[in-house]
Design goal:
alpha+beta, 3 domains, four-stranded mixed sheet, 45% helix
Length: 282
């Protein structure tokens, strides 16, 4: 809770000092306290960081993208945008923005946060193109994507470092990649001029069994899987993958698998194999 919220509840200075002394309140930042204990979850830490940056502050950038479910949280720092604030507070990465319009921020599940459109604009300035595309595709999947809102925020973003990247990214249908390995493969497909595959969409194979391949081309009845250690490195995952491969092959699909080494050191071969399969199918 912020100091303002505590005062609104009738907690005066003396009562505040006694609560801190007795351990009922724990100071997290200047003017921000945890009630009962200081062991906060991820969302609690984010909210405390926003409260510490004052009225009008909002969770933003990578932290907002993680809260909306657009990207995984990969940083120990919490991104907060405010019109002004104090730098050097704990693990808060402060962004100052005087141009935030009222509809660039909202409250979601109790969290003051930048809107999805504004979050995507801020994200476009700091992440690689494939991660921005991943965030856009995830926004579509979660039914959070609003193209009119994105066009509005772009029209007001002259001088923003993310404007060009977001404009380019929204000019095409985004593909959802769930890993950097998948992003590498999709990039190779595009550089080679191959038709774009479906990405991470359910596919019904033999006996109405649904699989979720990384990529597939319905026209060529071709499936490509990228074998990263995280998702495919266990014994159970190996068995599951081979069962799915057998189901697809029995239904008339061809399955190709590429490892990290394939995608980083044998890129010419990686591109040639789908191209040859497409030629045979044609």
């Amino acid at each position: 809770m912020s100091l303002g919220q505590l005062r609104a509840c009738g907690v005066g200075r003396g009562a505040l000092e006694r609560a801190v002394g007795s351990g009922r309140l724990h100071r997290l930042y200047r003017g921000v306290y945890a009630v009962g204990h200081a062991h906060l979850g991820r969302e609690g830490r984010r909210l405390a960081a926003v409260l510490a940056c004052g009225a009008g502050a909002a969770l933003s950038h990578r932290s907002a993208a993680a809260h909306w479910g657009l990207l995984d949280a990969q940083s120990a720092f919490i991104d907060v945008t405010a019109r002004r604030g104090r730098h050097g507070m704990g693990r808060i990465r402060l962004h100052t923005a005087r141009s935030l319009a009222p509809h660039d921020t909202t409250t979601h599940e109790g969290m003051p946060i930048t809107s999805v459109a504004r979050t995507l604009l801020d994200l476009a300035a700091i992440v690689r193109a494939d991660r921005l595309e991943r965030a856009l595709a995830q926004a579509e999947r979660l039914e959070l994507y609003d193209h009119a809102a994105i066009e509005d925020v772009l029209s007001r973003s002259n001088g923003h470092r993310g404007r060009a990247a977001l404009t380019k990214a929204t000019a095409q249908d985004p593909k959802l990649t769930r890993s950097d390995l998948e992003a590498i493969f999709l990039g190779l497909v595009r550089e080679a001029g191959l038709p774009e595959p479906q990405a991470n969409l359910p596919l019904t194979a033999l006996d109405h069994q649904r699989t979720d391949p990384d990529f597939y081309w319905p026209t060529y009845r071709l499936v490509v899987e990228t074998d990263g250690w995280k998702d495919h490195g266990t014994r159970s995952a190996f068995k599951r993958d081979r069962r799915e491969d057998a189901t697809l092959v029995a239904a008339g699909w061809r399955v190709m698998r590429f490892t990290y080494e394939d995608l980083t050191t044998e890129q010419t071969t990686v591109v040639q194999r789908p191209r040859a399969a497409a030629a045979r199918a044609a």
